[in-house]
Amino acid sequence: MPRSVNHVASRKRRKKIMKAAKGYFGGRSKLYTSAKNAVEKALQYSYRDRRQKKRAFRRLWIARINAAVRMEGLSYSRFIHLLNQKDIKLNRKVLADLAMNNPESFKAIVKAVK
Description:
Elements: H1 7-20, H2 27-30, H3 32-70, H4 76-85, H5 92-101, H6 103-113
Helix pairs in contact: 1-3, 3-5, 5-6
């Protein structure tokens, strides 16, 4: 009896990889083995960077808040400490947005905690 090979499933699996590698440079988009390695690496990077993006944005918000608060004569850590003492529940994303786009209201918050 001849050996049974499921070509439908293996072709589907390869096509899925080749579709994901579309747009890659050179053999990475043409050759299955290179494409498979490139797609696996890309998925690893995307998994890692979804977490790193959160860290990067938090760092950016802290830098923006720090710059805005120093103009008012406070440090970032002191400002956050005073916010917590006064029980003002604003996260860093909102504070950074206020500092950039609405400096008057940010100054009012700083005055409220001083």
